[in-house]
Amino acid sequence: MFKRFQLLLSISRSHLIVRRYFVVNGFDGAFTMLGLLMGFYVSDEVVLSVVIAACMGTAIALAVSGISSAYISESAEKKHELKKLEDAMISDLQQSAHGQAARFMPFIVAVVNGLSPFIFALIIIMPLWLAHWYPGLIRYPIVAAAAVAFVLIFFLGVFIGKISDSFWLWAGLRALLIALITSLLIYLVSPM
Amino acid sequence: MVKVQRIVLDVLKLHSPNGLEFSTQLAEKCPGCWFNFKVMEVDEKTETVIIVVESEDIPYEDVANAITAMSGTIHSIDEVEVISFDDVESVSAATDV
Q: What CATH number has the domain spanning B2-89?
């Protein structure tokens, strides 16, 4: 079963797409949460339950958007690719490994595309939940959550560095720098 | 009793899976068979390969199904070697044992 799954991933080249979507949408999730948190940070005295509700709502919307958009686009793309392969082979490939991959892989890609930003968002807002469940445990929950976002963005940068065989620390710092610039921009344009 | 012991197949396949994956999958589907995989011609999306299969008794249907499952098409059977066993001799040999 696992070997079959590996074969389908390999022949459809979906492992590369899955990795790319994981990183791209992971960044989306982390940056969206960072943006929200910075927005709340520059606003005065926001109720924690409002912050959590807004962040959870955004995380769920990112997940649903990621799953649906990736499934629609990937299934259309895979159908088109299969048609081209069928034309080249002058035969019906629906029952072959390529046909199975064209039907099955869009699900996998969609799930990764949706879950990646959702999981990143959940990790980032964990300090908010902890502060909500155990009042007094975290003194500045929004700052703590933003710090978690910076750490995750750094590690996403490191992961990209590993993929591209470049120096991991530089890749991580570069991602972190982008996150810092984003935060600074939000801080500067805030009306407060 | 007739047994097919060697077949040479002319197969059209896609580039992916590659020769190693393709022949490994074939071998997994047909235990006891020996496979030789040779690329004869490469086109933009497809390649023509010659697959030699050898075994005591080749399960041709299994080989053909495995090739189809890997998106391959058998163009022709270029060579076949079959052997005919004398059933009476086989039975008596089995009885002697």
A: 3.30.70.1340
